Amino acid sequence: MSLEKFASDTSVPIERSQAEARTLLNAHGCTKFALVDEEHRTAIQAVLVKDQQSIMLRFEVTLPDRKDKAITHFVRQGWSYARTAGAADAAHKQECRRRWRCLVLLLKAKFAAVDGGIATFQDEFLANLVLPSGETVGTWAARDLGPAIAEGRMPARLLLGGGS
Q: Would strands 79-82 and 73-76 be described as parallel, antiparallel, or unpaired?
């Protein structure tokens, strides 16, 4: 049994999802927005003033590779068929729209959890905080986290005085 991906048939333009994400962030105290577009990823950044402190947040959306088989092919009755160039372009655009809808859903869920008292701001947004180096806490911590868990030790980056 395969589950359909969230928003797989959305017709909501990316620009509308981006505007909705900005509206959600703005409604929760974020200002100074930036949209960063690169070939395989896009991100929305915002500054939140919390407890008289400016905190930068970044939410990244990894974009599908145009050469990925999920874009260039379709499956019917268990068989894989190549899409035409136009159909592959349409599939790529559809997947980009779907991923932006997922980000909007994620933001709604995070804010609902915080607003509803289920989680703290730190619980929900720690990984999205931007460090002075420009990387997010999530990216920074992830470098050591996987190997540390596999080896049954604390990650050096998360220990006091344990490296940069």
A: antiparallel
Q: What is the pLDDT of residues 12-30, one digit of tens each?
A: 999 999 999 999 999 999 9
How far apart are the C-alpha atoms of 57 and 87, rounded to whole Å?
35
Instruction: State residue 91 phi and psi, 5-degree precision.
Output: -65, -40
Give me the residue spans of the domains in the chain: 14-130, 140-164
**Per-position DSSP letters for 115-156, written without gaps between them:** HTTSS-HHHHHGGGBBPTTSSBHHHHHHHHHHHHHHHTS--G
Cα dihedral 11, 17, 19, 24 sign: positive
pTM: 0.86
Q: Which range is least confidently modeled, 90-99, 123-132, 145-154?
A: 145-154
Following CA atoms 14, 18, 19, 21 in sequence, which dihedral angle do they give, to the nearest 10 degrees?
A: 140
68: helix, strand or coil: coil
User: Which residues of the chain form beta strands (DSSP E)?
Assistant: 30-37, 41-50, 53-62, 73-76, 79-82
Instruction: Tell me how far apart the alpha carbons of residues 94 and 10 are, in angstroms, rounded to a whole number.
Output: 7
Rounded-to-integer distance, Cα 110 and Cα 129, Å: 14
